[in-house]
């Protein structure tokens, strides 16, 4: 089956909180969208692989987020859980154009 | 006698350091003028790669502040370039038409990046990596583009590439040779380095010669001479530097590759000196900071007419500043027919060590993976030491401490600034230094590249013994080796104002800290400057950021304030209405005599608060949670005091206070202690005519019975003692240390002796009042701030199938 991707407008860049996450719900999909240093934007699945913690509420350090439930450290770039814990969350491409933030998600 | 005029052309590391040396030798001998083309005060060019890698910000790499120039009466003309030196009249002229006469002139014009003369090199998106401007260009570019290509797999190129990766770009490194850093590493180390950097996400194209930069206005790609072609949005040329000698040359000062100088850094023209990357000494031009500082030192002596040995040339050493990769090399790199080598290759742990020996003497070394021996090897080479000196000490060595103690006093610890072990130990002992930062401030050790920080730390440990080890063990988190006390001292000393600044200035190992140090620093900063510090919501754990307790399913709980555990029909009705309207899943009575509404959706929180119209119960706070009370004298037949009244007063006084960890209090009206003061942080027990104040109790993970701190007569005294006790706790406990652990650590006697001092007691109370003066109800604050509401409490909802 051909994989369809679509680009979804999420927010104006200035409306996202600095160095924090935002819960973004697109249809069935729940994402945690982070605005990092220098306005870099990252999007990952809003669910910690450990016990389903909402990552959008985690503390952000550099490009990592610490799950608010049990402090698992997860890369917002690769989605990888950092040692000593293991696991992975889905990551999504983002795009910032003219201060508008988009995420690329499956489906049309 | 009027002062002589000293003019410096070039406001960079080598020149300004030389001026510092002059100021030290002869503070009042010269009127000093400095011209610099860049519009900044002298900054640490070496740390530009850290800026690019996101570890540091530009303003943090300043070496000499504007104030420094002022304090030393130096006339500085930033952003002004000297165009002409009139060596006969002894005058310089600038691009702004200014003229300045000199008695002594120092040329420290540094280097220019070498730009490959490729067709298309003038396109937008092609840059060097040399100064702040280049750095800013790259950072800006990373916001809009994806593909970066770095030409040059040497030191500078790799540091640039790492920075661009951190900025979120894809990076190809193009290199002419068949392995990386071929001028500093042998093939084995070069290949190990490549493997490691590939793991970090760099892509390498080796043995590739660039031929043409493609694109219309902006760069779009890079073509090689084998016809192969890659895409690029940004091309960084990091193929090398060349001495910036054009001014000297045009002014008739003899120049070869660099400006020719003798051992005293004098050019062939009287009263003109040259130092740093633009100078050529015995046919060598140096591009690393250590030799340039040595040159500056010798030149300063000559300028101040102090006899010296002159500059004798330097053995170079190199350390790569890329996080997660430790590479060091010095002296000779590759074997030839005369050399023998000592090699240790540990493929499993990824370490490699090669020491080259020529006629029994150490002449060079390459280290990969573990570079702790680097400075020692450099020093051995400089001393012309025999290989046995290295191998024998190595055999007997067990730890960093042994290594340190075996070093002679004249051994160089900080290669950049030429600071010896003896100097550092002397400074530690005579000036009572206890931290790496203090040593840096006093001796310059670790001020430049920072590579010797661990050695300085070892040296502190070696010199101070257990006192230092103690500190080390209690570092705030793994991002730093500094303890809480050291960090607080530095914050006060340097006037640091936000968490990111603390991390940058104090050399945090991770770019933005972690979930341990961020909230800790946020607390310490707020504790130190309650009225000035702006709390950082991004440094708060979710509960304290949203002022509600997150539950396992991502919903929240709401606990409104009920002072002293007392409520009324009206409040209960509001709570019931809210619970119905927002379909609260459960209403639960808490251990602290409150009502907890569980299962609330995040986006409903502000509406609920607004409809409740009650203050926050702070059930989420690292601060005062509740004051639990018994029924007391009003109703109870045993009650001797108005426990509810006092409890409400205490709760109203201390609500909203930030403390290192949560604080629970209680007031009982008789020794039956129904409000369970023995397991509270502060437990007040009312007796007939007096109150007992117990502290440091805990009924949770760290079960501990509270100890009697004082007996007092009046409610006012209870409030004042509690305030002094809590303030002392706020000021001296580690973040996340409950009073139970703190009282045990510090000891009740110590706490009592502090509070017994009348003056101290009053000051603690005054500082507590200051801290309380800024408290606001967080729920009210959130409801009234649209930006907060939008940023923190609203989700973005996009229906499927849009766009």
Task: Write a structural description.
The complex is a heterodimer of chains A (108) and B (803). Chain A is mainly beta and 108 residues long. Chain A has a four-stranded antiparallel beta sheet with strand order 2-3-4-8, with no helix packed on it. In chain A, strands 1-10-9 form a three-stranded antiparallel beta sheet, with no helix packed on it. A three-stranded antiparallel beta sheet of chain A has the order 5-6-7, with no helix packed on it. In chain A, strand 5 (59-61) and strand 6 (64-66) form a beta hairpin. Chain A contains no helices and ten strands. In chain B, helix 1 (13-25) packs parallel to helix 8 (289-303) and helix 12 (421-431) packs across helix 14 (453-464). Among the domains of chain B are: 4-111 and 243-303, 3-Layer(bba) Sandwich (FAD/NAD(P)-binding domain); 126-239, FAD/NAD(P)-binding domain (3-Layer(bba) Sandwich), CATH 3.50.50; 405-412 and 419-472, Arc Repressor Mutant, subunit A, CATH 1.10.10; 484-540, no CATH class; 621-776, Sulfite Reductase Hemoprotein, domain 1 (2-Layer Sandwich), CATH 3.30.413.10. Chain A binds chain B through residues 6-11, 15-20, 22-28, 33, 37-40, 51-54, 57-62, 66, 68-69, 71, 73, 77, 96, 107-108, and chain B through 54, 139, 143, 167-168, 510-515, 518-519, 537-542, 545-546, 550, 552-554, 602, 790-792, 795-803. Chain B: This is Nitrite reductase [NAD(P)H]. Chain B: Its cofactor is [2Fe-2S] cluster; [4Fe-4S] cluster; siroheme; FAD.
Please outline the helices and strands.
The complex is a heterodimer of chains A (108) and B (803).
Chain A: E1 5-12, E2 20-26, E3 29-35, E4 41-45, E5 59-61, E6 64-66, E7 73-75, E8 91-92, E9 94-97, E10 100-106
Antiparallel strand pairs in A: 1-10, 2-3, 3-4, 4-8, 5-6, 6-7, 9-10
Chain B: E1 4-9, H1 13-25, E2 30-36, H2 48-52, H3 66-71, E3 74-78, E4 82-86, E5 91-94, E6 99-101, E7 104-107, E8 111-113, E9 126-128, H4 132-144, E10 147-151, H5 155-166, E11 170-174, H6 187-199, E12 203-205, E13 210-215, E14 219-224, E15 229-231, E16 234-237, E17 241-243, H7 246-250, E18 259-261, E19 272-274, E20 279-281, H8 289-303, E21 317-319, E22 327-331, E23 339-346, E24 351-358, E25 361-368, H9 374-382, H10 387-396, H11 400-406, E26 412-414, E27 419-420, H12 421-431, H13 436-443, H14 453-464, H15 466-473, H16 484-494, H17 499-505, H18 517-528, H19 542-546, E28 549-550, E29 556-558, H20 569-581, E30 586-589, E31 595-600, H21 605-612, E32 624-629, H22 643-654, E33 663-668, E34 682-687, E35 690-695, E36 707-712, H23 715-732, H24 739-746, H25 748-756, H26 758-773, H27 778-783, H28 786-793, E37 796-798
Parallel strand pairs in B: 1-2, 1-7, 2-3, 7-19, 9-16, 10-11, 10-16, 11-12, 18-20, 32-33, 33-34
Antiparallel strand pairs in B: 4-5, 5-6, 8-17, 13-14, 14-15, 21-22, 22-25, 23-24, 24-25, 26-27, 28-29, 29-31, 30-31, 34-35, 35-36
Helix pairs in contact in B: 1-8, 11-14, 12-14, 14-15, 23-26
Pfam families (chain A): Rieske
Keywords (chain A): 2Fe-2S, Iron, Iron-sulfur, Metal-binding, Nitrate assimilation, Oxidoreductase
Organism (chain A): Thalassobacillus devorans
């Amino acid at each position: 089956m051909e994989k369809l991707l679509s680009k979804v407008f999420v927010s104006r860049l200035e409306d996202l909180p600095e160095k924090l996450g935002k819960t973004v719900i697109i249809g069935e999909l729940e994402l945690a969208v982070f605005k990092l240093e220098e306005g870099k934007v990252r999007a990952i699945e809003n669910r910690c692989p450990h016990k389903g913690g909402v990552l959008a509420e985690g503390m952000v350090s550099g490009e990592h987020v610490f799950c608010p439930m049990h402090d698992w450290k997860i890369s917002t770039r690769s989605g990888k859980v950092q040692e000593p814990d293991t696991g992975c969350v889905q990551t999504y491409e983002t795009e910032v154009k003219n201060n508008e933030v988009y995420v690329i998600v499956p489906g049309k | 006698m009027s002062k002589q005029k000293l003019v410096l052309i070039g406001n960079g590391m080598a020149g300004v350091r030389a001026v510092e040396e002059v100021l030290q030798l002869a503070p009042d001998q010269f009127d000093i003028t400095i011209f610099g083309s860049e519009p900044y005060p002298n900054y640490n060019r070496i740390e530009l790669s850290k800026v690019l890698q996101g570890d540091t910000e530009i303003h943090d790499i300043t070496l000499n502040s504007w104030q420094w120039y002022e304090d030393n009466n130096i006339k500085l003309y930033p952003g002004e370039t000297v165009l002409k030196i009139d060596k006969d009249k002894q005058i310089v002229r600038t691009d702004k038409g200014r003229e300045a006469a000199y008695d002594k002139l120092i040329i420290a014009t540094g280097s220019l990046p070498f730009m490959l003369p490729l067709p298309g090199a003038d396109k937008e998106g092609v840059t060097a990596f040399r100064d702040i401007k280049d750095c800013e260009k790259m950072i800006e570019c990373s916001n809009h583009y994806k593909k970066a290509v770095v030409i040059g797999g040497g030191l500078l190129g790799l540091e640039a590439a790492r920075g661009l990766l951190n900025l979120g770009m894809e990076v190809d490194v193009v290199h002419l040779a068949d392995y990386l850093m071929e001028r500093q590493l042998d093939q084995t180390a070069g290949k190990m380095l490549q493997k490691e950097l590939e793991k970090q996400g760099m892509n390498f194209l080796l043995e590739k010669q660039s031929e043409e930069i493609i694109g219309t206005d902006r760069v779009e790609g890079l073509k090689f001479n084998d016809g192969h072609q890659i895409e690029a949005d940004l091309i960084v040329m990091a193929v090398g530097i060349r001495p910036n000698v054009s001014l000297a040359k045009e002014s008739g000062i003899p120049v070869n590759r660099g400006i020719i100088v003798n051992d005293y850094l004098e050019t062939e023209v009287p009263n003109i000196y040259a130092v740093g990357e633009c100078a050529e000494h015995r046919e060598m031009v140096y591009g690393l900071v250590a030799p340039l500082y040595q040159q500056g030192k010798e030149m300063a002596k000559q300028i101040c007419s102090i006899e010296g040995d002159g500059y004798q040339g330097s053995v170079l050493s190199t350390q790569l500043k890329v996080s997660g990769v430790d590479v060091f090399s010095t002296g000779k790199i590759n074997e030839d027919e005369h050399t023998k080598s000592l090699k240790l290759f540990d493929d499993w742990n990824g370490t490699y060590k090669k020491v080259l020996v020529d006629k029994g003497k150490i002449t060079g070394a390459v280290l990969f993976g573990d570079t702790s021996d680097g400075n020692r090897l450099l020093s051995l080479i400089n001393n012309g030491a025999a290989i046995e000196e290295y191998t024998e000490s190595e055999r007997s060595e067990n730890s960093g401490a042994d290594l340190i103690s075996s070093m002679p006093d004249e051994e160089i610890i900080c290669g950049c600034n030429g600071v010896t072990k003896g100097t550092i130990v002397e400074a530690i002992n005579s000036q009572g230094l206890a931290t790496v930062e203090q040593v840096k401030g006093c001796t310059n050790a670790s001020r430049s590249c920072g590579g010797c920080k661990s050695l300085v730390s070892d040296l502190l440990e070696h010199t101070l013994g257990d006192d230092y080890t103690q500190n080390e063990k209690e570092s705030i988190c793994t991002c730093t080796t500094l303890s809480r006390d050291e960090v607080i001292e530095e914050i006060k000393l340097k006037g640091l104002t936000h968490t990111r600044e603390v991390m940058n200035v104090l050399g945090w190992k991770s770019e933005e800290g972690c979930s341990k140090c961020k909230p800790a620093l946020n607390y310490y900063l707020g504790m130190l400057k309650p009225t000035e510090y702006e709390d950082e919501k991004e440094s708060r754990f979710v509960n304290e950021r949203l002022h509600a307790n997150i539950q396992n399913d991502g919903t929240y709980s709401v606990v409104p304030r009920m002072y002293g555990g007392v409520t009324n029909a009206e409040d209960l009705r509001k709570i019931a209405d809210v619970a119905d309207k927002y379909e609260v899943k459960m209403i639960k009575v808490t251990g602290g005599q409150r009502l907890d509404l569980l299962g609330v959706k995040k986006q409903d929180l502000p509406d609920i608060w607004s409809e409740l119209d009650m203050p926050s119960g702070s059930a989420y706070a690292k601060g005062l949670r509740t004051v639990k009370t018994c029924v007391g004298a009003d109703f109870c037949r045993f009650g001797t005091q108005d426990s509810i009244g006092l409890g409400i007063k205490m709760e109203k006084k201390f609500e909203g206070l930030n403390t290192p960890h949560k604080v629970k209090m209680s007031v009982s009206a008789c020794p039956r202690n129904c409000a369970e003061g023995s397991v509270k942080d502060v437990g007040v027990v009312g007796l007939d005519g007096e109150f007992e104040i117990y502290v440091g109790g805990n009924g949770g993970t760290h079960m501990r019975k509270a100890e009697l701190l004082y007996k007092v007569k009046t409610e006012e005294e209870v409030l004042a003692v509690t305030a002094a006790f809590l303030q002392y706790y706020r000021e001296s406990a580690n973040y996340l240390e409950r009073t139970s652990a703190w009282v045990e650590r510090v000891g009740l006697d110590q706490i009592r002796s502090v509070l017994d001092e009348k003056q101290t007691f009053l000051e603690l109370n005054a500082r507590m009042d200051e801290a309380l003066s800024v408290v606001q109800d967080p729920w009210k604050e959130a409801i009234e701030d649209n930006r907060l509401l939008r940023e923190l409490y609203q989700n973005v909802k996009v229906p499927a199938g849009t766009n």
